[in-house]
Amino acid sequence: MTAFGKLIRTTAFRLTLVYLFLFALFAASLLGYFAWNTRRLITEQITSTVNAETGEISDIYARRGLRGLVFTIENRALRPGANLYLVTTPTGQAIAGNVGSLAAGVMGSSGWSETFYRRLDDQDTVTHRALVRVTELPSGFRLLIGRDLEERRRLFGIVAQAAQWSLLIVVVLGLGGGIFVARRVLRRIDAMTGTTQRIMAGDLSGRLPVGRSGDELDRLAENLNAMLERIEALMVGLKEVSDNIAHDLKTPLTRLRNRAEEALARSGSEQEYRTALERTIEESDGLIRTFNALLMIARAESGQARDNMDNFDAAEVANGIHELYEPLAEDDDMTLRVKTSFAPLHGNRELISQALANLVENAIKYGKPVPAAQPLGADATAPSREILIEARRVGDQVLLSVTDHGPGIPEADRGHAVGRFVRLEASRTLPGSGLGLSLASAVATLHGGDLRLGDAHPGLCATLAIPARSGVSDRVVAAQTQDVPQKVA
Amino acid sequence: MIATDPQMRLLIIEDDRESADYLVKAFREVGYVADLASDGEEGLALAESGDYDVLVVDRMLPKRDGLSLIGALREKGDRTPVLILSALGQVDDRIKGLRAGGDDYLPKPYSFAELLARVEVLSRRHGGPAEETTYRVGDLELDRLSHRVARGKDELTLQPREFRLLEYLMKHAGQVVTRTMLLENVWDYHFDPQTNVIDVHISRLRSKIDKGFERPLLHTIRGAGYMIRDGIR
Q1: For the whole model, what pTM was predicted?
Q2: Which member of A289, A331, A432 has the closest CB to residue B192?
Q3: Which of A220, A302, A383, B194 has its CA 20 to 30 A from that of A249?
Q4: Does ipTM surpass 0.85 in this model?
Q5: For chain A, what is the largest distance between any 2 Cα atoms, rounded to a whole number of angstroms?
């Protein structure tokens, strides 16, 4: 397609053509109306003055007879101007006036008519148009009084010319403007098309150009850029995940294979086979768990788990998880405590339970105090081995938090601690898939909230902040909170 | 493994030849009569004609999928317990399966011990005694109405959750109960804890009901789960 072809196909240009046509039509009808009205006005004016003069002259004739009439006519005919006078005998002979010649038959019929004429004092042979009234006087003499129409014609000519010029200007300006606008739009659209083509070719970092005017194209570009941002993040996430899967699933698979191979090669005792097989099962169970966690995260992130949402109290979830993990913590010489108040949520209870369980498991696993971090001295208290689960409503958010007093996560690491398979240096030696925080974060995102990692001085405070269920009044909250302390763990 | 009623009849509806053969073989080894159907239509026909104690149904089957097969059976008033096997292991799939009329749901991949334990529980529920108010295993007695637990002459004090745990174990006395089954039925969680939480709860319960007594009642079944029973067979 040629550049011009592209130009005239743009919406902007087509709209210009439509508007051009409409404006031209408007201008033409406006001028037409003006011309027609002016013409009418002039005609009316002529008619009324001619009528008045006819009356006046008939009067003179009645009072002073033919002599008076001829005298008055001759007198008036000599005045310069556009006035026409003619008096003829009943046989049609001109006896006074300033009309040289007339179209045939004009003098024969009484009343109004438009006619060609020539003045007596005209040197040239040009004929003019005039509006005349012929009256028959009582004696059979005929009187013609008229006005030249030159003025009316000139005015009409001026209007017609104005119409031509304005049409020309409208068309030229309209076309020019249309081409200008269309080219501008086309340039920006071409820039966008270019970018999208680059993106389609695989360069996901490309962004659409955004102008400063904040018009609809800019807003569109901004929105598309936001979309591209999200797509890029998802793609990067996907790539990261596939890289991680490749690493974190292939490693145990390789181990599995090696072990099976080794057992096969060293045809040992039945006991040896048995041990090898048991370890194989253990390893594959771990793999299945990792897979399930990954699927769960993917599901939460894609929003599929939204089907199973209902209303519940996050305090119940916290109490339930506390009840489940309390013995485990105690076995590990730690104390798990819970503090809850009414925290209404709308969400997937199972996923939120699991997210909280992951945080608690992490706290039990990594939240043991570091002995060296405790100050040596007189008032050195025993390191706190307490983990606190809290569920409460703060403003329009429900906060589900797990606080431990272990080494915590350095601020610089908090951002990527949530990533899949991320295992911070400190935890590499302990078992785990590195998916716990990822899942918790994905669950929080699914519910429109987020996972916050904070400092508990010392220790980690991991909080799931999720928008509270709306429509539950504070009075209900107060009433329900009072019921909670009676709950026996 | 565990000796079962030799008359127990099982129908496996699974299209993957290898896993189907493995299941049939494994169930026959523990004394089940196991039949096999390899697609939905054949499965439905067999399930309707045969008198089975439990059906093990794969969710995705050729000709007629698992859920519609169960729906057709239930519509005809057939209450045979059904265990659904599925590669779709997520919570909502599970709920869908149970709503369609399944009695239990096991995501693939599963261990045979887990499947066997669940099938046993299902078959017992099907033909077994109705809900009793008092469970007895050896000299251990649990009263479900008054929430009293006693071993011999000693009254035992249990936390509410320990009571429910023991109640579930005693309801299925003599049967293997897996950790996932406990998590699902006692705690109503369907996720998979990465740690041995259940073991810790069991060991607490054990310290209350078995500590100081000569005959232990709560046994760990290696590679499968737990079982409460009197003496060792």
Answers
A1: 0.63
A2: A289
A3: A302
A4: no
A5: 161
